[in-house]
Amino acid sequence: MSQSLNLTKPLQDAIAEAEELIANAPFIATEADRLEGYDYLAGRIRMAVQMAFDYDLDHPLFVNPTHQFSRQGLDNPDAIYFNAFLREGVEYVVRGRRGTTADLSFQVMGGTYSADSAATSLMAFDDRELEVGPDGRFEFSYVAEPGAKTMIVREVFNDWDTEERGTLTIERPDTLGRPAAPYSRERLAKQYEVAARSLVGSIQTWFAFPHFFQYKEPVNTLTAPRSTPGGLASQRSSIGHYELADDHAMVISVPRCDDCAYQAVQVGSDWYASTDYETHQTSLTKAQAVTDPDGVMRFVVSAQDPGTANWLETTGHRTGALMLRWQRLERDLTAADGPTVEVVPFDSVLDALPHHVPITPEEYAARIAARQRSVARRMIS
């Protein structure tokens, strides 16, 4: 006998509300912007359902909520993200095998990101603080402190072609071996309600978040390296946003830093998310970029192809976010380590590149093919 429990109604309503937010986003300028927004919405729905249904506070696990099919928070194209929800006062055991990626970092967050504020970082460290065995294996225990809500792990690639990810698990010793609670109407209703709140909340959050930071800066500028808001202890970042006509380009010049394992730049969209980094070159690490003989990496941000190796594609966006990151630092950075910016007519862009490294369309296509293979190899969506 069929019976409708109407448990999905909150999520149905949230999807309709989220669609209104997306369709009427204040920065939409073209139909392409709106269509990209609908793809972004699909990722937000996917994330909301995953985070509501894939976790159990009694049986924790690391969930991968952010990837090329679910972009958020100006996600790093070079990172694999893992989230596990925590319960205060409970002991957790984290085990893993260190891969060969440039950085592996752990962070415990208090609260959540919202349209009003950023989450609080309660603890942040990288694997240099762990005892890693000759076989790459490690283990540590953590008792969730007051206010602790989430453990976030980032595994970051500097060289997409050669570095390999490791493995990672989290468990509660006090509940290990017990079966999960049976399904109940109350539990499922709560999960659909959580997914509904998460969906609308995440869209509102990432609409507001860049205005706390990125969009407080003058357009077509980048900040000196500084601690990333709510970020890692060993990370510094430079943030900004651009506005470029099709006949102009931005040249970003930044010294290559050899006192960190990872350094990179990316172009993001006004949805405050990564743009297509799989089939377009919208990001580059220091391993992927060409460094000039004077030790400086010079990147060209533009809609048109300048025919130079360090081109960062805007993929049709006249406006968007910019971010540079340095991770696993061995020293702090100064303004001299940071970027400088110059906006020039596109026809004059090569004049701003004293060591221009040309690249043919065939060579560029080979780069894109390599990016596709590398993303597919590390993908765990």
Mean pLDDT level:
94
Strand-residue proportion: 25-35%
Alpha carbon gyration radius: 22 Å
Kindly name the structural category. Answer: alpha+beta
Would you mind describing this structure in some detail?
The chain is an alpha+beta fold and 381 residues long. Helix content is 22%, strand content 29%. The strands form four sheets. Strands 8, 9, 10, 12, 13 and 16 form a six-stranded antiparallel sheet that branches. Strands 1-6-3-4 form a four-stranded antiparallel sheet, with no helix packed on it. The longest helix is centred in the middle third of the chain and has 28 residues, at 185-212. This is DUF1214 domain-containing protein.
Describe this protein with a few key phrases.
single chain; 381 residues; alpha+beta; Jelly Rolls; 17 strands; globular; DUF1214 domain-containing protein
SSE blueprint:
Blueprint: H1 9-23, H2 31-53, E1 79-85, E2 91-97, E3 103-110, E4 120-126, E5 137-143, E6 148-156, E7 167-171, H3 185-212, E8 221-222, E9 226-227, E10 235-243, E11 248-255, E12 260-268, E13 283-285, E14 296-302, E15 311-313, E16 319-329, E17 340-345, H4 361-378
Gist?
This protein has 381 residues and is an alpha+beta fold.
